[in-house]
Each structure stands twice: as structure tokens, then as C-alpha cells.
Amino acid sequence: MTKIPSQILSAILRVWACCVFITNVQAAEEDDRKLGLELQKLAALGSDRVLEIFDANQTRGVATIVSEDGYLIGKQSDLAQIDEILIRLGSKKIPPRLVELLPSLDLVVIKVPAHGLDSISWKKEEKAVTMGDWLVSVGSKKKEASLGVVSAKTREIKPSRAALGIRMSTPTANETGVGILGVVPNSPAQRAGLAAGDKLLSIDNENVASPADVKRLITASAPGQAIVIEIERKGRRFSVSASLEDASILGNPMETSQVLNGRTSLRRVDFPQVIQHDTPLSPDLMGGALLDLDGNFVGINIARVNRFTTYALPAHVFADAVQRAISEDRQRRAAARGSLLVPIGPQGSAKNL
Amino acid sequence: MEAILSAVIRSNLFPSLLALVLISQSLMIGISRADLISDESIEELKSVQEKVKRQLEKSMAATVAIVSTSGMGTGVLVSEDGLILTAGHVSMKPGQQMQIVFADGKKAKAETLGRHLLSDAGMMRIVKPKGPLPYVELEDDASASDAGKWCFALGHPGGRDADRGIVLRVGRVLQKRKFKIKTSCELMGGDSGGPLFSMNGKVMGIHSFIGGEFTDNYHVTMDPFHTHWDAMQDKEVVTLAGYGKGGFLGVRTNNHETGVIVSEVVEGSAAEDAGLQVGDIVLSIDGTLIKGYLGFVEYLRQKSPNEVIELDILRDEEQKSLNVTLGERKK
Questions:
Q1: pLDDT tens string B58-104
Q2: What is the rounded (10 degree) CA torsion for A275, A277, A282, A287?
Q3: Which of A27, A157, B41, B207 has its CA 20 to 30 A from that of B244?
Q4: Residue A347: helix, strand or coil by DSSP?
Q5: Which residues on chain B are in Cβ contact (under 8 Å) with A133?
Q6: CA pair distance A162, A242, nearest whole angstrom
Q7: What are phi and psi of B252, to 5 degrees?
Q8: Higher pLDDT, A54 or B198
Q9: What are the chain B neighbours of A296 within 8 Å (beta carbons)?
Q10: If pLDDT is split at 50, 70 and 90, which confidence band does B222 have?
């Protein structure tokens, strides 16, 4: 029964995460729709089912409790940004154990040693929410919650191409690197300080010799991912970091404006199905539970997209995968202990032994 | 001022939009965070949910995407023969052709009509519609848009996306002015010209511009549409100087915290005849308190030459009442 140190957990997550990105940005404080007294009770009910995630002293996010014995789910690409993950449990801060990565859902299942936690309850027959239904996004220990409605069709969000925002010249023979002809205003390239006349030498330490090389390396990355670009300017060489952007909003001043959109999630695309809602939420609350007005578990907030959009994964999309991961983990743990007493998981794991 | 007010939510208008944010904040008092803390009950929320869902099908059918050469916007059908209300900065110049896309993806051609520059109201009409079109009514109950009332917004934020469809937002009215409603329905470029609905499912606003806070969402009221309905249908561009009956006072004024302050009196004007002086603070006209320069001008525009108005003014900290017989505006 080896305990994986949380630094390693973070490293594993980082390898798997689709978007690795370093963010250090301050946005205008979101004006969440705060709730009245009656709703606060509902929110408190939800907050009890959510644990805070810490990085040293700072609150960095939330994870939702999916079993009374300490299995939690969180947003994988966000947790991958945290150097040392700690979960607040009562007065203690505990490093969690990695159980399973679900990269196609951008979810991670983790475990803290606990019993008798207040878990969300999986609904057997889920009634799909539709446009206009109120949703309550639970916060953290502050017992705050925010309110919004289902605002568009529930649908798949396809992966998007990453873009840097440069125009390149075709290099002549014997020339090293790729010349930059122009930079798209408001693009990652411009924000990283690239300019026309610069010569691109390498991306993430891989030398580039043609525009095709550059395109290949960029399209192999995900929007939100940070790349290190080595350039030559006036005979001097230096490196800059640029965070790639979703090609569909490249250079669009309103869609990329942090003033208008506030802080957004790094991974905002590539989900099998999302509920779109209009709740203004901090991206730090992704991984938190989403309830309906009767307190039923609807899903998990998974991406803060822009000023008017938050995405949530409906519970039915991840219920089986998460429950299977938990069940298999319980079996593995029981086998490792050599014990005959196996907790019976929701999938009836005992009979497999 | 006209240029500022007609600039707005459009993807390629970011610099003017920022300017507008600054202006809008100086003109309107921001709402504090505390005002947003509501104490609605779950029962109330369920009733709002039920009302919105009941209106959704009809209101979405009347909401159209507008594609022009300069960008994408939204509009709302208000008659079965194809009259569309939108934002003035979407319809722009009268007599242009634009493409309309209905909620179900069907397309039609429309021609732009007139606009009202001061408020950002605009109109267009579908050319030769095939049969009766889905439409919604205008809200005739002014109290439906009072601060605190629930409302919902529809539109195509970020431009039309067939997979996503029309986007709904539910919120509350935060402030109401003559030409502007501020709500908590978060808007984005592409929403411009889209409808804001009352809980009765009737149009009470047209999306116009946004600011940096998530609560800075502004919509044109129905007032300028009602006032200039015929002129706009006749493809008129209604400017500040170009409407009204022509009653002329003859002063230049600036905003003052209790009304407007006179900065210049035109020689030989009605204002001079009545004894108005530079530095006078005009508090009210005909007993109506003046809310800034725009309200003052708007009131005067409705008056005819030879009509008598009563001004309450403050001069040297003394309140006075003046009767002024309006003159004629020189063309």
C-alpha cells in the first residue's frame, strides 16, 4: 500500500493533461448571482459535498465527493497546474491519492482517507435538464452558490485547433529558422512579444526549418497549452513563452478580452456532451457540483468558457466511468491487503474476486 | 455623443466599445454588489422558470440572426409581414440588403430601414416574405421593465452557431432610463439587436452594448421605437437635431448634479427674452425634474414654437420660476 506523493500525482496529471498552461492573471471580480436564505440552505447542502483543494496556503479549486469513503472527482487539466495538491478535510489538509485519470472527460478521480462523508447521490433515472431550467452551482466551504439557467442546447463540444497567430515566409536554401512576416493583432504571438522580422528557430526545443514544421508543432498542441519559442532578432537569440489559443477565436478582440470575459478555464473544448448555462463562475469552481432547484445532482461544472457561458458535464456522461474506477480501485486495494472482506461497490465488485 | 451611443457590441468595434464603457459609467450610476444579493425563494424561481420555458418556443422562433458585410447581429420579428427591430449599429445605413437566418436555419433577405442615433434603435424588413412569419408583441406595460423585474434575453452571442443555437440568459432589470435598460443578462458581440423579454414574453428591450462588469449589459428601451416608429419605417435616420416639433429655447447646457447648468444663452432667443442667464441651474421643466442634459433636450424636442414652458431655476442659491414662450428653431 504505497502512497503516491502528491507531487508525483501532480506530475502524472501534468503528463496526461491536454492543456498545460501557466496562468497568473487577475480579472475583475465576478459578480456571481448570490442566493437568498432559502437557497443558501440548498447551497449548503451542495457545499457539504464539495471539498476545497489547496496549494500550500492558497485555495486553488474544488473537488466533488462521489462516495462516503473519500473518492472525489475534479477537473484534471486544472489540478495539473497545482504543484502540491492538498485537500481540506475538516481542520486537516491531506494529500490525495490518484485513482484514475479520465482525460476524455477532463476528470480525475482521487481519494482521501475518510469515512462518512456527505456524498452526492447518483440518480438512477436522470431527467435531462432543458433550456430555461435553473441550476445551482455550489461553491466551497464558504457555502456560497451561484444561480443560472440552462442557456443553450446540450451538445458535444468538438476539439479545436490551436493557433499562435503568425504569418510566415518560406525560407530560402541555407537559411536557418522561419521568418515571421506578420503577427495577428490580439493573438498569442502578439502577447508573447513576437514581431514581423523575427526569425523562429525552435518550438519546445525542436528546431524548425519550414512553415510546415511550425504548423505541425502547433497543431499537435492543444489550445491553452504554453509553448516555448526561440527566436532570433537583430542577431540576438532569446526565448519567449506563448499560450496557444483556440483557432476559432484567434485575434477576436471581444471573445479573447479578459476585461469582458473575466478569467476562463484552460480547457474549454473537447467534451463528449455538455450542459451550457449562463452562471457567471470563477474557473476555480470547475469540478464543483451542479444541482437543480430540488437539490438533485445534475452534473459537474467543467469549463468556464466566456462572459456568458459555463459548461457542465451531465452526470450520466461520467457516472459509469467514475463508478467503475472506484470499484476497480476498491478491488485492487482489497487484493493488496489480501483481505476477503471486500467492500461491495455499486458495480458489485465482490463477485469478481 | 451620437457616435458614442451608436458604437457598440460588434466584434470589430472594440476600441469604441471601451470608450463607451467609460462614457456609460460616467452617465449612469453603477449598481453595487449588494444590490445583486437577492432573496428570492425557490418557489419564486420555479415560477420564473415556468414562465420563461412557456415563452421560449415562440420567442425563439421570432429571434433571427442578421448577417451583414460588417459582422453578425441579432434581430426580432414584431409583425407577421416581416418587420424586425434591431440595434441601430446593426442595421446601419437605410436601404441596404442584409441576410436573415431564422432559428430553424431558413434564410431570407431583408432591407434596412431607419434608425434613431441617440438610443441605438434600428429597424429592417424582410423583403417579400413567403406567408405569415412568427413574431412577438411589444411590451406595453412600462412597469414590466422596472428595476428588480425578471427578464430574459435571446441572441446569437459570438455569431450564429448552428450546433449551439440561440442562447438564452435569464436575469433581472438593474436600472431603467428613458433610452436604456441595464440587466444582469450577460451579452456579447453578436447579441446586438437581439430581444430582451419581459416575463409576459413581450419585447421590452433591444441589446445594445456592454461594459467590463458582467452586470454591464445595456438594452435600448421601447421608448425610441414608439416615438419614431413611422419615421424609422420611412427609412429616416433620426438625429438629435432632426426631430421634434421645432420649439426653440436657445441655451447650451451641461450636466449638473441637480439638473442642467446654462453655459450659453443664444442672442435674441426665447431664453434671453425670458431672462435666463449663464450659470443658472435649471432644476425642472413644467414640474418634471430634469435628469441631465439628454432628458432636458428630449423634453424640449417635443414642444412646438409658441408653447409656454415653466422652468424652475436656481440662481445665486435662490430658486425662481420662469415662464418661457418657445421660439422657432432655424432650419
A1: 999 999 999 988 789 999 999 999 999 999 999 999 999 999 999 99
A2: -20
A3: B207
A4: coil
A5: 49, 53
A6: 12
A7: -105, 140
A8: B198
A9: none
A10: very high
* Whether pLDDT at A47 is above 80: no
Cβ of A257 within 8 Å of Cβ of B52? The answer is: no
> Looking at residue A42, what is its pLDDT?
55
Which of A130, A144, A254 would best serve as a mutation to test chain B binding (most B beta carbons within 10 A)? A254
Q: What is the rounded CA–CA span in Å between residue B217 and residue A216?
A: 41
For A132-185, the pLDDT digits (tens) are 999 988 765 555 678 899 999 999 999 888 999 999 988 777 778 899 999 998
ipTM tops 0.90: no
Q: How many residues does chain A have?
A: 353
Give the other-Cβ count within 10 Å of B279's Cβ. 11
- Under an 8 A CB cutoff, do A280 and B186 touch? yes
Parallel/antiparallel/unpaired status of strands B167-176 and B259-265 = unpaired
For residue B186, give the nearest of A255, A259, A278 by CB distance.
Answer: A278
Tell me if the pTM is above 0.80: no
Q: How far apart are CA A18 and CA A272, in angstroms?
A: 15
Alpha helices, DSSP H, located in chain B:
2-6, 14-27, 33-36, 42-61, 88-91, 223-227, 229-233, 270-274, 292-301
Residues from chain A that touch B11, judged by Cβ atoms under 8 A, are 252-255
> What is the total residue count of chain B?
331
Q: Phi, psi at residue A319, to the nearest 5°?
A: -55, -50
